User: Which sequence fits this backbone?
């Protein structure tokens, strides 16, 4: 069943991709093939393989429980927040929070969480910024 | 004779302090990454690429660092296979079969050192194979025109799924998805934006490094969050390593095994779409069939069952570099990632690489030899150090992996948008791995999509819009035939091999080497 849904979604993506390809504005200066042809070939392959997946599905994968699924989504949200807040908070603070969150969710205790978070952040800062000279996001406090 | 002259030049390039230190660092990091379950060679190299760039390393030093990581990971994978019965990476899967029983018998040290020697033999002779085979392949590749290149790319995609995926439709899907990602951005030939949806950040196209790190490294973090592998803490301490030198009789017994497995592994590596996992699998099964017909000793701690897969996977790792360097078409996951390095350094891999950048090629090959000796030294006397690394629990390791990935990508572009795209790719990678869709074709599609399209358009433009020009020369017809056979054959005979291979597969091993 999972694969049938997957194939259907794939087919929709392929159709969407084909429409987006047809909508490409051609410039007046074009080669014999043009910018649309190859994307249309890709859309065809994408569509055909999706149909094949839907028609001959594999065994369904073992899906995680709703709780685990929420766990993964939450981690993705935290990572996105991290991406947005990195230039605002600065590298050290943002990274400490993000690393702490991840290690906490992977099963660290309270003390270990704080230590891992701060340790990861400061460790990376020292090795990559101070020793190797990589430029990291600079926050209001200068680090 | 030319070959040896070039090789000597290569050693002159590789033997600078900076390059030796980089090789040493690469070997060390690679062995650790290979040994840690959940961090394979493709992950390891993927995480380090952005760092190599932001550190401003040149082409040769970057490649030396990253291929040392690649070779190192191939060595390191066996450590956790033998000590914990958990493959450190997918190619080391077969080493569990006899390595762990050996460790249970109290022969862990002997298994480790024997497999270290087998790894060395495999990698050493495969590097020689690379030296002699790659220039021959270059000679053929110099005859290629745009139409032949288009056929070659098609061949790479159609055979990539081959033996390693369970479902050809899913491989095709993955390849098309990757090619689709490559189409995003301004069309190089006419200058019109495609699939950008008005988002200015997308005009330059998706950075394939963002896609690689997201798909490989971040999806691994999500997999760990799903399963919460916290329970593997510190099990390595329970097993005694014991004596670290294999007895001479054991070496003698396994020498023919190593030679056979090296040959098989190298061939498996050169073939497109196979890679190191297949190399170790073939080497092990062949050896089992040859020396243990009744199934008495294999699987119960036979030293030959440790030597075969290790020689096989390391030889395959060297073999996989042949098509990557000579044709610019990688055959495995990690070589695809290494191709990304070359492309980002503005070096076009393929036949011209050998004439235009001989310093890069031969410097790299010399560095591989040096790295091999370093790895032998690291992996036998110092193996105890690496067994201690295994005690780092994933709950500490995974946040570090995630954060280093972010640092690397942010270091290249300094843009939050790229980080968001990377998280998106991480989620996508997790979902696709659940569906057993291989990730390597996606990477390859993203990497090669533009080159493939350009060759198609060039071929047809040269022939005034005649599409039949694609199948106009004997060379391109041959390539198409191989491609089609390579795509259809696994549908018929592949199921058997696959089901055998996947029966032994760890749930987190869905990345190809």
Assistant:
């Amino acid at each position: 069943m999972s694969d049938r849904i997957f194939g259907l979604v794939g087919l929709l993506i392929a159709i969407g991709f084909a429409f987006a390809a047809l909508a490409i504005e051609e410039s007046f200066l074009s080669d014999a093939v043009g910018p649309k042809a190859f994307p249309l070939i890709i859309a065809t392959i994408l569509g055909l393989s999706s149909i094949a997946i839907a028609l001959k599905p594999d065994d369904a994968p073992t899906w995680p429980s709703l709780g685990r699924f929420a766990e993964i989504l939450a981690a993705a949200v935290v990572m996105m927040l991290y991406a947005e807040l990195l230039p605002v908070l600065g590298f050290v603070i943002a990274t400490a929070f993000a690393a702490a969150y991840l290690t906490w969710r992977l099963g660290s205790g309270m003390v270990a969480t704080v230590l891992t978070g701060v340790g990861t952040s400061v460790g990376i800062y020292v090795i990559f910024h101070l020793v190797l000279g990589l430029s990291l996001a600079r926050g209001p406090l200068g680090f | 004779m030319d070959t040896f002259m070039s090789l000597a030049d290569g050693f002159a390039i590789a033997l600078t302090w900076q390059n030796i230190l980089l090789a040493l660092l690469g070997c060390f990091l690679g062995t650790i990454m290979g040994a840690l379950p959940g961090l394979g060679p493709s992950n390891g190299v993927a995480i380090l690429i952005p760092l190599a760039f932001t550190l401003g390393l040149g082409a040769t030093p970057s490649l030396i660092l990253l291929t040392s990581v690649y070779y190192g990971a191939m060595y390191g994978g066996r450590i956790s296979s033998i000590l914990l019965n958990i493959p450190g990476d997918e190619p080391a899967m077969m080493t569990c079969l006899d390595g762990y029983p050996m460790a249970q018998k109290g022969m862990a040290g002997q298994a480790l050192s024997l497999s270290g020697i087998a790894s060395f033999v495999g990698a050493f002779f495969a590097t020689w194979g690379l030296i002699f085979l790659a220039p021959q392949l270059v000679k053929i590749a110099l005859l290629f025109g745009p139409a032949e290149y288009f056929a070659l790319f098609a061949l790479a995609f159609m055979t990539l799924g081959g033996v390693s995926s369970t479902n050809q439709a899913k491989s095709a899907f993955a390849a098309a998805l990757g090619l689709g990602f490559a189409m995003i951005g301004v069309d190089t030939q006419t200058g019109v934006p495609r699939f950008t949806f008005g988002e200015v950040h997308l005009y330059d196209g998706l950075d394939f490094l963002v896609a690689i790190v997201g798909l490989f490294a971040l999806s691994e973090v999500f997999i760990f969050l799903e399963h919460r592998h916290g329970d593997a803490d510190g099990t390595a301490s329970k097993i005694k390593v014991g004596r670290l030198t294999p007895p001479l009789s054991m070496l003698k017994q396994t020498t023919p095994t190593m030679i056979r497995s090296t040959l098989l592994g190298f061939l498996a590596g050169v073939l497109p779409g196979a890679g190191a996992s297949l190399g170790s699998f073939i080497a092990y099964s062949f050896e089992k069939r040859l020396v243990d017909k009744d199934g008495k000793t294999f699987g119960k701690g036979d030293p030959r069952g440790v030597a075969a897969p290790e020689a096989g996977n390391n030889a395959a790792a060297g073999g996989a570099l042949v098509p990557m360097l000579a044709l610019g078409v990688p055959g495995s996951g990690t070589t695809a990632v290494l191709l990304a390095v070359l492309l980002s350094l503005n070096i076009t891999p393929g036949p011209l690489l050998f004439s235009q950048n001989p310093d890069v090629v031969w410097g790299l090959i010399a560095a591989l030899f040096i790295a091999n000796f370093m790895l032998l030294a690291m992996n036998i006397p110092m193996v105890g150090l690496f067994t201690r690394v295994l005690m780092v629990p994933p709950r500490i390791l995974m946040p570090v992996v995630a954060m280093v990935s972010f640092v690397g990508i942010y270091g290249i572009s300094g843009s939050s948008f790229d980080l968001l795209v990377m998280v998106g790719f991480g989620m996508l990678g997790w979902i696709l791995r659940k569906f057993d869709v291989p990730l390597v074709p996606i990477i390859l599609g993203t990497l090669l999509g533009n080159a493939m399209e350009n060759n198609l358009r060039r071929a047809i433009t040269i022939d005034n819009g005649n599409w039949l020009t694609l199948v106009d020369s004997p060379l391109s017809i041959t390539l198409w035939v191989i491609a089609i056979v390579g795509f259809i054959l696994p549908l018929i005979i592949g199921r058997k091999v696959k089901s055998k291979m996947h029966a032994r597969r760890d749930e987190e091993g869905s990345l190809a080497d």
The longest helix of chain A spans residues 66-89.
